[in-house]
Design a protein that fits this description.
about 325 residues, OB fold (Dihydrolipoamide Acetyltransferase, E2P), 4 domains, globular, disordered N terminus
Length: about 325
C-alpha cells in the first residue's frame, strides 16, 4: 500500500515538473512560443517578426526564420510585429515571403498571361517577382508568349512549390457538392456552350450560365459574383449572375437611388428602354430593373414619367 502511494506521488511530481517546463518554453523564452508555427506555401500567412537584419526581416517559421526582403518590409516594423505575407519559392528555390499580392493563391483559378516559354514548360505572370511555372505536361495544346490561359494553382507534391495546370477537368467535380440553391458563389467563365457558358463555381464545381441570364459580353477568365439558381437530381447546376431574389432588389435599389441623386433626381430610363441600355447604365438585367423600380414605386421613393424615372420629393 505504501509502495502505491509513493508511485502515485512520484507520478504527480513528474507531471507537475513537465507541465511547468512546457509553460516555461511557451511563455518565458522569447521565441519558443512560435515553435509550432506551420507555414503554408502558396498562401497568405500571419507570422511574427523574429529578427531584423541588413537584408530584411526574418519571420518565425518554427525553424531558423523566413526572409522578408527589405523592399517588402512595411515602415516601422519591429521585432514581435505580426505581418501578413504570401509565401512561395524564389528563383534559387528558397522559401521566401513577400507583401506583394498575387493574382491568385493555391487552390484558386485565374486567367494569366504567359511571359516565357521553354522546353520544360511556360511561365505565367501572377503578380510576383518570380513567375508561375506550368509544366508542359499540364498544358492543353502548348502555350504561347503573350497568350492568356485559365489555370488552377496547386502545390506540387514532389517539390513543394506552387505551380499551375491548364487541365481543369481533373480539378473540378460536382461529387460531392459543397453548395446549395440560393448560395452566393464566385463564378469564373470557363468556356462557351450551345446553351450559354460553362462556369466554374468556387474553384471546384461546374455549372451553366444560360444565355437568357447573360446581359453583357463575357469571355473565358471573367470572374463575378453569382448564386446557385437550381441543382438538378444529377448534380448539374444552373447559376445566375448577381444576388438572388429580394436581396438583389435591396442592393440594386440603393444603386438606383444613388444614380438618381447624382443626376438631379431624374434618369431617362424606364420599361421601354432596351436591355442593353439598362445594363450599360445600371449593371443589371431589364427584368431586375423593372422589379427594383416597381419596388421603389410602391415605397413611394420614385415616380414614373413618360420618359423615365424621377425621385419623389
Amino acid at each position: 500500500m505504501r509502495h502505491y502511494r509513493l508511485s502515485y506521488a512520484g507520478c504527480i511530481t513528474v507531471s507537475v515538473v513537465y507541465l511547468l517546463t512546457v509553460v516555461f518554453y511557451l511563455f518565458c523564452l522569447p521565441s519558443a512560443q512560435y515553435i509550432f508555427i506551420m507555414v503554408n506555401v502558396g498562401a497568405y500567412n500571419k507570422l511574427p517578426v523574429q529578427r531584423i537584419t541588413q537584408f530584411g526581416v526574418f519571420l518565425e517559421d518554427g525553424k531558423e526564420g523566413l526572409l522578408l526582403p527589405n523592399r517588402f518590409v512595411p515602415a516601422r516594423t519591429k521585432v514581435g510585429d505580426v505581418l501578413e505575407v504570401f509565401v512561395y519559392h524564389d528563383s534559387e528555390d528558397r522559401m521566401i515571403a513577400t507583401t506583394q499580392k498575387p493574382k491568385a493563391v493555391a487552390g484558386e483559378i485565374a486567367f494569366l498571361q504567359a511571359v516565357a516559354v521553354t522546353h520544360q514548360g511556360a511561365f505565367l505572370d501572377w503578380g510576383l517577382m518570380k513567375d508561375l511555372f506550368v509544366p508542359r505536361s499540364k498544358q492543353l495544346s502548348g502555350m504561347q508568349v503573350g497568350g492568356y490561359y485559365l489555370v488552377k494553382i496547386y502545390i506540387d507534391a514532389q517539390t513543394g512549390r506552387a505551380a499551375a495546370t491548364e487541365k481543369l477537368e481533373f480539378e473540378l467535380s460536382n461529387e460531392p457538392l459543397t453548395v446549395k440553391e440560393k448560395d452566393l458563389v464566385k463564378l469564373t467563365v470557363y468556356r462557351k456552350s450551345d446553351i450559354g457558358y460553362v462556369v466554374i463555381i468556387n474553384n471546384r464545381h461546374t455549372g451553366i450560365l444560360h444565355n437568357n441570364e447573360i446581359y453583357r459580353n463575357i469571355q473565358a477568365g471573367d470572374q463575378f459574383e453569382g448564386f446557385i439558381k437550381h441543382i438538378r437530381p444529377d448534380n448539374k447546376i444552373d447559376v445566375a449572375a448577381g444576388k438572388p431574389g429580394y436581396e438583389r432588389v435591396e442592393d440594386e435599389s440603393e444603386k438606383i437611388l444613388r444614380l438618381l441623386k447624382e443626376n438631379n433626381g431624374y434618369l431617362p430610363y424606364y420599361d421601354k428602354s432596351s436591355p442593353e441600355e439598362i445594363y450599360d447604365v445600371f449593371g443589371m438585367s431589364k427584368k431586375t430593373f423593372k422589379m427594383v423600380t416597381g419596388n421603389l414605386y410602391k415605397q413611394r421613393k420614385i415616380i414614373f414619367t413618360e420618359t423615365g424615372i424621377k425621385i419623389s420629393v
